[in-house]
User: Fold this.
Amino acid sequence: MKVRLQVDEEDARDEVIELLRAQDRIDQAITFLQRYTHEYVEWNLLVRLLLLQGPVKDVQLMAYEESGPRRDARSMVAYHFAEQGRIDELRRLVTPGSSTGLALLLARALVARGRVDEGVAVLQERVDADEQHSRDWLIQLLVEQGRVDEAVRALDRAVEDTDARYPAAIERLTKAKADLLAAYDRPDRNRN
Assistant:
């Protein structure tokens, strides 16, 4: 079991949690892990136990630490907040400079609650900051929401923003636009 935990095998972690729960020892395990945990796998287990028991404030504090194994708590608690629809708390974790993946999580959580424009705006901020993957995720979100014309405009901006020294990137974006237009049976308004 110890080896399976060390390689961060999710089933092993779940087995340990169930064993602790069956023995009514989760609080004892939390206390121990809070005192003696230094490795990622241990923090991962601690965060999951804390979230299971409900003291989310402890996990929130860990989520704001920027170094060491605790930095992973931010992602874990963000997923927890997204699942529970705790948008305001999730938004506090998604700060400038935080992971673009967390911004995507926030955007999807907002969309899931019918707040599509806010979700799009979250990703647009990341596009404006030129963060990796943000434009692709924005376009995907727009297409999923049936906002194909906006997705096409985002692809046009991507082509405009791409340095001419990278013809392969421009070609990839142009092909993506053509594929999108064909998939939705829309004419290319930019063609002469």
Q: What stands out?
A: The chain is about 70% helix and 0% strand.
